[in-house]
Amino acid sequence: MHPILALVLCLSFLFLFLQWKQSSRKGKLPPGPTPLPIIGNLLQLDVKNIKKSFSDLSKVYGPVFTVYFGTKPTVVLHGYEAVKEALTDMGKEFSGRAVFPVFEKLNKGRGVTFSNGNTWRETRRFSLMTLRNFGMGKRSIEYRVQEEARCLVEELRKTNASPCDPTFILSSAPCNVICSVIFQNRFDYSDQTFLSIMERFDENLKIMSSPWMQLCNAFPVLLDYFPESHNKIAKNVTQLRSFVLEKAMEHQASLDINSPRDFIDCFLIKMKQEKHHQQSNFTLENLAVTVADLFGAGTGTMSTTLRYALLLLLKYPEVTAKAQEEIECVIGRHRSPSMQDRSHMPYMDALVHEVQRYTDIIPNNLPHAVTQDIKFRNYVIPKDTTILTSLTSVLHDDKEFPNPKMFDPNHFLDDNGNFKKSDHFMAFSAGKRSCVGETLARMELFLFLTTILQNFNLKPVMDPEGIDTTSVANGLASIPPPYQLCFIPV
């Protein structure tokens, strides 16, 4: 190596190391493995399975520790007590959203998922209020979910009990529920626009859950030198937002401010009310990003959970049989399941909760950030420090859930077979950044799964003992392996 080049490299390493030392003095950060210059702790982390790396580190450094992704410190909270203390007891202080480089350029601080400050507060408050007004958690939205469940059954019948990959069909149902709230109308399962929307969401979720994207979030400079994956995400997001804006223009032409039809109408009305506010967050750009956020939460994670649920039911036929027995006893075969049935179906309720607990779809939550310099336990965490809350450590706590690595609905049943709530159930996160559509998601999971088991027996294409339920990605989301099954009409 040329002496001058060697000197430049040494000085660069020294400069970055001193910079890290200086930044670490800003607060008394929790302990953690010693980071290397530039790369931080990446050599000590398994980017293919970050949640396992965090579990291993917690055994050495305790429930609160610091890791460096590159030169950036991230505080990890591991275990129920630490996660609850941050998200619930100190919810305001931990309510920031950390920078997500992959979406930073695309969103520009807009929307509800990756925004902060006043934009986040106003957009979240509006979204919650509007979703509630359109029936989230009420009978009106339940009718929409029930109707979509019936359409789902008809689509599954078309498979003629032949082996099929359920990915598309299980994405269509929750996507259509969101469509009915945002656009007023559902789509036919063969509609090309509808197919395009779901394909883009599925591709983005897979890319975001890949090890490569974990590296890009740690080293944003990689996005400039190797932009292929980021460009795919950007292209998919841009096309979805163009579709939303096209729908917004159609809505504006027939808008009745006294009779809003859907989420877009409500947003357009809010825009009119605030048109004289120069700093208003209610713009067409924010509408497009917000709708994309709602789609992502309501379609991607929900369809992934449904897909995982059926895989587990194939793996554990005794669980499936017990659930179907309860469905037959409480509902029968001649009427649609309703949310009123849930209180009389403890096993099915427990099954749905166990699916979410076991699958652990968003293992490390979306990254939070502290909104100010705070004292947390014996540490001082500077403002804007990234916080990762290990939901895996809460959902797989062996003190709360005996044999947490086993899929067992009895985790949510008491000795008398009654449904048992658990404070450790944080599948939708907790606190001020919890999932906006949690109520709707709970309804969909119960009604869709109950309706499927009411109408079909699930037949695997291989011996259940040979079915592998290990996720194929553990980045942003846990993605189930591809599989096929047969839907045999009851």
TrEMBL record:
Subcellular location field: Endoplasmic reticulum membrane; Microsome membrane
UniProt cofactor(s): heme
Signal sequence range: 1-23
Major enzyme class: oxidoreductase
Keywords: Endoplasmic reticulum, Heme, Iron, Membrane, Metal-binding, Microsome, Monooxygenase, Oxidoreductase, Signal
One Pfam family here: p450
Documented EC number(s): 1.14.14.1
Family label: Belongs to the cytochrome P450 family.
Protein name from the UniProt record: unspecific monooxygenase
Taxonomic lineage: Eukaryota, Metazoa, Chordata, Craniata, Vertebrata
Gene that encodes the chain: LOC103126403
